[in-house]
Design a protein that fits this description.
Elements: H1 2-54, H2 63-148, E1 149-156, H3 157-162, E2 166-169, E3 179-182, E4 192-195, E5 201-204, E6 211-213, E7 222-226, E8 242-246, H4 249-252, E9 258-263
Parallel strand pairs: 1-9
Antiparallel strand pairs: 1-4, 2-3, 5-8, 6-9, 7-8
Helix pairs in contact: 1-2
């Protein structure tokens, strides 16, 4: 839209120059052409006078009359020459003026073309900048979301070991006296994502005391409660569930953004 307005403004200026050039040139050319036509009319008159005078010598009776006729013809011829010279000068001036106007219009058209190309290039730069800003905004948004994301998984020990979330540590041949610990590279595909800042309760499919939290979380930042038993037969499984209530989300997730819970069999 801005480009159209600028081009319209430039074209308006161009039209103004052209109109001004046409009006000024038109007035001057009209004046010149009228003067030339008047001169030509005068030439025609003088030509007629000379033509008539040239047939009069036969009727002249004295040398004085002949002399006056010759002077009259000579004067008219000189006047015709002067008028024709003036006509040529006026035409040459008019041609120069038209040439200057044409050059000025061509220069102005070249300026408009150059400005249009500059505007096109600038708009491409602005579009590129807008795309970069949108891309950077998306990256910032994704980074912001990642900083708020927590990962939760509750599963039996064998499943945790199968998914390589925990691994054996120490012991003889990895069997006797060994213990389980979190692996150094925990795959997050099996985890549920939660908003750490908005999540204040996490359901556990096990009774209180029948699971162990393997990741580091300040014990003072949460409490574990038993889910009230449902009186309907369809929801009897809720009697084997419990809930972790998080009372300070920022402190709860401060040590780890991952919550791994081992369910006891």
């Amino acid at each position: 839209m801005r480009k159209l307005l600028i081009l319209a403004f430039l074209l308006l200026i161009s039209c103004g120059f052209r109109q001004q050039g046409r009006e000024g040139g038109s007035e001057q050319s009209d004046s010149t052409l009228k003067a030339i036509n008047r001169n030509l009319e005068l030439v025609n008159q003088k030509q007629g006078i000379i033509s008539v005078a040239s047939r009069q010598p036969e009727s002249l009776t004295s040398i004085a009359d002949n002399y006056r006729l010759q002077n009259r013809i000579t004067g008219n011829i000189e006047l015709i020459d002067s008028v024709m010279s003036d006509n040529r000068s006026r035409l040459q001036a008019l041609e120069r003026m038209l040439g200057l106007n044409r050059r000025r219009i061509e220069e102005l058209e070249q300026e408009i073309t150059g400005l249009e190309q500059t505007i096109d290039a600038k708009e491409r730069e602005i579009d590129s900048l807008k795309r970069a800003l949108v891309h950077s905004g998306n990256l910032a948004s994704a980074l912001h979301d990642s900083l708020k994301t927590g990962y939760v998984l509750a599963a039996p020990q064998d499943s945790l070991a199968k998914w390589k979330i925990i691994e054996k540590n120490g012991g003889l041949f990895g069997l006797f006296g060994s213990s389980w610990r979190l692996s150094g590279h925990i795959p997050l595909k099996k985890f549920n994502r939660v908003n750490m800042l908005k999540t204040n309760r996490i359901s556990i499919p096990a009774k209180a005391g029948s699971f162990t939290i393997l990741t580091l979380h300040n014990r003072k930042t949460y409490t574990v409660a038993k889910v009230k038993e449902s009186r309907t037969a369809a929801n009897r499984k809720s009697a084997d569930s419990s809930v972790i209530y998080i009372n300070s989300p920022e402190q709860f997730w401060s040590a780890s953004h991952i919550l791994v819970i081992k369910l006891h069999k």
